Every structure is written in C-alpha cells, then in structure tokens.
C-alpha cells in the first residue's frame, strides 16, 4: 500500500479534472497557476462525490481498496479526515447501503462499532488540496493519491461500502462468544490428577 501513498503532485490533466467541478474552471486553473500551493473549495455532485472518514479508519479503508480490491480514486487528507473521491451519486446511495448493513449500530458495550462516514454530494462543497506536491503545513490538506488524468476511475457506493465493512472488521475484533463474566469464579484445573 505504501506505493499508493507516495503521492506526486496533481498533474495538469488532474488539475483540469478537479477544476471542471467548479462553475468557472478556467478561473480555478488560472488561480492555481498563480498559486499552486493554495487549496480551493469545489462543489460536489457533478464531477465527483466525496466520502469523508476519520483518518485512521480512512487509512484502513484505503488499505482494503488497494490490497484486496480495485484500488481507489483520488484521496486527500484534510483536518484529521480522509477524503475519498467517489463517483457522482455515491453520497446519495451510500447512506442507504450503510443503513441496510446496520452501520454505526452500537456493539455489545453500547459504543458504536464503526465510525461515521460523511457523504458529500449534490449541494455540498469540499476543500480540495493544492495541486503542488509541497503545500504549506498550515493548509492542512494534502493529496495521498493525487488525480493524474482528466477521467480518473472513481469507486461507487458498493465498493466503498465493501471497503468500509472490511476495514471495520479489522478494527473491531468480532467474536462469536459472549463477553466474559467478570464475576465468575475461575478454578485452575491444570494440576488435577
């Protein structure tokens, strides 16, 4: 997986793809030519949707996508969250698939078994990291898998659900046995004759 995290900067084709999400793509591209280290806010829903996961859980999802699945589309880190760029329509469909899987239902101890995933689609906007490889640390946004083509492959809701379920299974130890009774009397029978 480490090879997918050695992100190069966004290519010119990747920048054109990102800018195409905005109302004025040429203005965004001109801004990036002038300030390649500046993040911008772009709307979701027409060119891409974004699924946002807590950083550690997002890394587990990314590992599942690259190690066991088809790979990922562009991925960014921003303010302690992973932004997985997805096919348009994913933000609308993924919550119902997650509900069907009982995502976030409390475990035996009452705490949620899986972290919340935030879906950004039509009507939402996200901060997109700067296209430059080295952005200032204050920006807080960086590419882990940078867009490098005008038409990147973007996972759909089923693939992201698959990755999330598998990431949750590796994060939470699943047992078919009930929790141990801490008040039970335990006897050592190993020395019995």
Number of domains: 1
Global morphology: elongated
Kindly estimate the percentage of residues that lie in beta strands according to DSSP: 15-25%
Helix content: 25-40%
The SSE order reads: HHHEEHEEHEEEH
With strands numbered from the N-terminus, the spatial order across the biggest sheet is 5-2-4-3-7
Rounded average pLDDT: 84
- The parts where pLDDT drops under 50 for at least 5 residues are 1-7
Structural class: alpha+beta
How far apart lie the N and C ends? 53 Å
Say how many strands there are. Answer: 7
By DSSP (H or I, 4+ residues per run), the number of helices equals 6
The value of Rg in angstroms is: 21 Å
In this structure, how is the largest beta sheet organized? 5 strands, antiparallel
List the helices and strands and how they pair.
Elements: H1 2-5, H2 12-19, H3 25-34, E1 40-43, E2 49-54, H4 55-67, E3 75-78, E4 81-86, H5 90-100, E5 118-120, E6 125-128, E7 141-145, H6 157-171
Antiparallel strand pairs: 1-6, 2-4, 2-5, 3-4, 3-7
Helix pairs in contact: 2-3, 4-6, 5-6
């Amino acid at each position: 997986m480490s090879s997918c995290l050695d992100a190069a900067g966004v290519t010119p084709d990747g920048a054109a793809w990102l800018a195409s999400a905005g109302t004025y793509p040429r203005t965004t591209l001109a801004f990036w030519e002038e300030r390649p280290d500046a993040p911008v806010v772009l709307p979701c829903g027409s060119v891409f949707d974004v699924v946002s996961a807590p950083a550690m859980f997002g890394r587990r999802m990314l590992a599942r996508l690259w190690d066991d699945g088809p790979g990922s589309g562009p991925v960014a880190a921003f303010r302690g969250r992973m932004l997985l760029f997805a096919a348009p329509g994913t933000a609308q469909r993924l919550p119902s698939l997650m509900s069907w899987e009982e995502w976030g239902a409390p475990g035996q101890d009452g705490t949620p078994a899986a972290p919340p995933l935030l879906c950004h689609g039509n009507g939402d906007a996200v901060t997109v990291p700067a296209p430059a490889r080295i952005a200032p640390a204050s920006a807080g946004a960086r590419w882990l898998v940078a867009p490098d083509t005008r038409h990147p492959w973007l996972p759909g809701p089923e693939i992201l659900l698959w990755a999330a379920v598998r990431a949750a299974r590796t994060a939470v130890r699943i047992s078919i046995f009930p929790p141990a009774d801490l008040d039970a009397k335990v006897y050592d029978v190993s020395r019995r004759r």
